[in-house]
Amino acid sequence: MKKRFLFCVLVLLFLLCAVGCKKKESKQGFQPPMKGFTWGMSCKDALALIGEGKYDKLDLEDGLHVAIILKENVKLFDAQAQPYLLFSKELCKDAEDGGRLQAVILRYMDISEEQLFTNMTEEMGDATRDSAPVEEVKNYIWDSKTTLADLSKKDYKCIADFMSNEEQAKKLVEPDRGVALEVPTEEQPVNAVALKKVTTDGTVNLSVVYYGDWLYLLKVLQEEQ
Fold it and tell me: What is d(CA 192, CA 145) in angstroms, rounded to the nearest whole number?
């Protein structure tokens, strides 16, 4: 979805709750990896769930995204990671609410790329695909087995109708190539998880990114439009 690739790179380059974790895909695609969080939930509700004093807040320079950085790590894929929650204000009627949950970035410090990839493969199966949008970035991607065809006809129509409007659809771009998204087919996965490797000045930064994708958009359309 829009700017998720840009945001992940910025977080890893420049930023360098005792909550239960769930790792496997649910029947509704990949859900946020911390218990109680859902795609498209408001920033206000998320902060109430996290608890006062347990996070830092960062308003991104584009003015449309907010990063909530949890102070307590979570254990996922057999390693400790620091969670970053990305909220988008782009389709919200009231931006003062802080936006809606669009992605979760887990930043890993004490594990190698090879071991993290192995751990993820053991728990989620083989990656669906990989990509290298720029020289410094390598992605291993697990697409959800859940597709848009698994949604109700009403929900799929809600997404398709929004994407059929060129003025609305141009707000959303394909993260790796930066091109506008088109009306999705029913065979498209509802969302994905990616192992992202970013190399800058010889330093390797690893993160696992949970994307809300179409599930995020559906929730926003249901509650904001």
Answer: 9
CA-wise closest residue to 101 among 205, 203, 7: 7
Over residues 174-222, the pLDDT tens digits come to 655 556 678 899 999 999 999 999 999 889 999 999 999 999 999 999 9
Task: Give the pLDDT of residue 176.
Answer: 54
Sequence-distant (6+) residues with CB within 8 A of 141 are 127, 128, 129, 130, 131, 192, 193, 194
Six-digit token pair at 31?
Answer: 């859900």
Separation CA 17–CA 1 (nearest Å):
27
Query: Which residues, in sequence order, are bridge partners of residue 55?
Result: 70
Q: Which residues contact 178 (CB under 8 A, 6 or more apart)?
A: 5
CA gap 175, 5 in Å, rounded? 5
**Cβ(111)–Cβ(99) under 8 Å?**
no
Q: Could you give the residue ranges of the DSSP H alpha helices within 26-171?
A: 43-50, 113-124, 153-164, 166-169
Counting Cβ atoms within 10 Å, is residue 153 exposed (0-12), middle (13-18) or buried (19+)?
exposed
Crossing angle between the packed helical segments 213-224 and 153-164, to the nearest 10 degrees: 90
Query: Does pLDDT of 125 surpass 50?
Result: yes
Nearest Cα residue to 119 out of 195, 191, 196: 195
